[in-house]
UniProtKB/TrEMBL annotation:
Belongs to the glycosyltransferase 92 family. GO terms for molecular function: glycosyltransferase activity. InterPro entries: Glyco_transf_92. The lineage of its organism: Eukaryota, Metazoa, Chordata, Craniata, Vertebrata. PANTHER family: GLYCOSYLTRANSFERASE FAMILY 92 PROTEIN (PTHR21461:SF52). It is found in: Membrane. It is an enzyme of class 2 (transferase). This is Glycosyltransferase family 92 protein. It is a single-pass membrane protein. It comes from Salarias fasciatus (Jewelled blenny).
Amino acid sequence: VNGTKTLLISAYLEHRVHSKETVAYCCLLCCQETLHVSEGVSSVHPDHFQFPYGTADIMCPVPSACQSPSYITVTSDKLEQRFMEVKNLEAKTDSFRYNFTVCLSTMFDFTNVLQLVQSLEMMRLLGVNRVVVYKTSCSPETQRLLDHYTQQGFLEVVSWTLSRHVNVSRGWLPLHGPGDLHYMGQIPALNDCLYRYMYQTRYLALQDMDELILPQTVSSWSALLPLLEKEHRAKQCYMFQNNVFPITAALPPPGPAAAPPADPWGKVSGINILKHLHHEPVIKETEFSNFKIIVSPRAIFSTSVHGVLSPQNVCAWVDRNVARMYHTRDPRQPELTADQLIYDGRLLNYSAALLPAVTTALRQSRLLPEDDTHQ
């Protein structure tokens, strides 16, 4: 926005609130080739992880003579001519294109091919219909995989070019990486995904590429969500406890437990989640932190990395014995010894279907030769 320190990301029509606040911006709305002007106001999200810049919503009242604006721009004067398309013109309450959509953000310098394809195929097995990736940069091998899933219609890749305009950090706190905005613009990406799919999907999961929300009593999200809706009734957001499966530990299963299947993807770069079936104990200090959510997007106005910002008190905690999150990553408690880790073989319940699906995807992406399996 010329004359301000504001960068516009996207534009969506908000059907649920009508606010009149202190004027801060000039909104130019295009309706049937006629330009209309309204006075907008910004509201900065409170969660910005101590960085000097944060995500904000600029609310532009829709003039009575322009109820369905097609394009909009926001400026500090009336001379700005760079418009963006207004989306979400029609509010919907049913007949959604997708049942489950997952928002993955943000992808930069990404090379972890094997864990990505395993995660995407696991999501399919769980009943996910659509995955959205906000991508800044990745390896050529990763790009092949993204192209494969995009051609199938399972994946949407949003080109995330925020780093061209803002000094983004590669860390989640200023001490972990210099910059003006949190973690490659993760929070604006999540909020854009929330609005992008608000009227396209019944449920929306906001998580990372190394995270999987696994039911414990049923096998899919399609079976899980009716159980959660019945138990929590009025709630439209579900929080899942984070369980860290450190990639530094590839331990054998205890006693008579089934062993992980043989690795057929030895030459593919990345983490094999089936080799890491021991998680760190959940401790009191982190029991209710770093969780992720599945929501009805129409109930949410703004979100952060871990949970909803607005409205409050809309989310319910899910019992870990009903469903929980499996986070395969670097250890969070590196001081633990092998015998202090806890075995959890739930992922193996999916391995019979997961192995051939991953192999097929890698072959079709030209990342695995036809005869390079089960060596």
